């Protein structure tokens, strides 16, 4: 075995399969979770503002 080579399992795949899967899950969550949160907390339509009528002024007779 050379000094700098990575150990492999008998099937020829790297021994860090679990780390690769966990890294992939973390990467997907990093990409998808912010978009999902933004979509959940964003209103689909802008808020409507009700016009406020000015107070009525009574005229003295």
From TrEMBL:
Statement: the UniProt record of this protein carries the keyword Transmembrane helix: yes
TM annotation in the entry: 20-41
Transmembrane among keywords: yes
Top-level taxon: Bacteria
Keywords: Membrane, Transmembrane, Transmembrane helix
Protein name per the record: Uncharacterized protein
Gene source species: Phormidesmis priestleyi ULC007
């Amino acid at each position: 075995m050379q000094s700098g080579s990575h150990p492999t399992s008998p099937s020829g795949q790297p021994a860090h399969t679990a780390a690769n899967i966990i890294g992939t899950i973390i990467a997907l969550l990093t990409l998808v979770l912010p978009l999902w949160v933004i979509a959940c907390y964003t209103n689909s339509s802008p808020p409507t503002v009700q016009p406020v009528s000015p107070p009525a002024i009574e005229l003295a007779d």
